[in-house]
Amino acid sequence: MYLNKKVIVITGAAGLLGSEFCREVIDNEGVLIMAEYDVEKANELKEELKSDRVHVYQTNIISKSSVENLVKNIHEKFNRIDALVNCAYPRNKNYGRHFFDVEYNDFCENVGMNLGGYFLTSQVFSKYFLEQGYGNIINISSIYGVIAPRFEVYEDTEMTMPVEYSTIKSGLLHLTKYMAKYFRGKDIRVNAISLGGLEDGQPKAFIESYREFCLNKGMLSPKDISGTLLYLLSDLSKYVNGQNIIVDDGFTL
Ligand SMILES: NC(=O)c1ccc[n+]([C@@H]2O[C@H](COP(=O)([O-])OP(=O)(O)OC[C@H]3O[C@@H](n4cnc5c(N)ncnc54)[C@H](O)[C@@H]3O)[C@@H](O)[C@H]2O)c1
Hints:
Layout: E1 7-11, H1 16-27, E2 31-36, H2 39-49, E3 54-58, H3 64-78, E4 83-86, H4 104-132, E5 135-142, H5 163-182, E6 188-195, H6 204-211, H7 223-233, E7 244-247
Parallel strand pairs: 1-2, 1-4, 2-3, 4-5, 5-6, 6-7
Helix pairs in contact: 1-7, 3-4, 4-5
The structure holds nicotinamide-adenine-dinucleotide.
């Protein structure tokens, strides 16, 4: 098993993608720390996973004391942390509006919560990793951190590709490279996964026009991403550092 007793922290663990990542960690003999704001949802998933290797810690990635307490509590219980997976998706109630409807304060708040939260969590964990002598951070980005939006896919729907999202996810890719290089010689890896859209009840017209840009499947399911996560968590990728792995069925080509 690839993750034999590795202690792996997943933020946003009870979400659409995070919950599949949790299954992958448990299936591969890892010790799973679900760092989740919505503790009720996290406990439901814990029940479903039926393993004594699952641990839920209520965490808010935009609160320094919350993330510091998380690290302290994990250290006291397990005496090690092998990896952090940044997979939470904080956003405020006005997130996702069309470009001209986005208020300055909402733009700043959403970028601050999401990109800022990923920065804060990575900063606190990497401090621990430095003391520990090794570490591994995986940032969940998106195809829209890599390419400009394909706005045509959203035509005939109420949906759009939010400007905050492109800003957050492209910034996250550069934060990934920045941190990988900053920790040169410290055995701390920092990589990103940029995934394509996950099918999750979107309108049929959207799913179909999205598929036209893909090579085989179209929109993905969380399971389609978890093999890449497993690779980055495992020692198979020991010298993969500062990279962005795109999993998108060719959408960005
Ligand atoms: N869903 C997609 O199509 C898609 C595509 C590309 C990338 N992604 C990325 O994948 C990641 C996960 O997305 P998802 O679709 O699973 O989102 P989701 O909304 O289903 O899950 C996000 C989880 O984060 C938790 N969360 C929110 N704020 C938090 C906070 N402050 N502290 C801790 N936890 C918090 C929520 O409770 C939720 O369980 C995000 O980075 C997202 O941008 C998603």
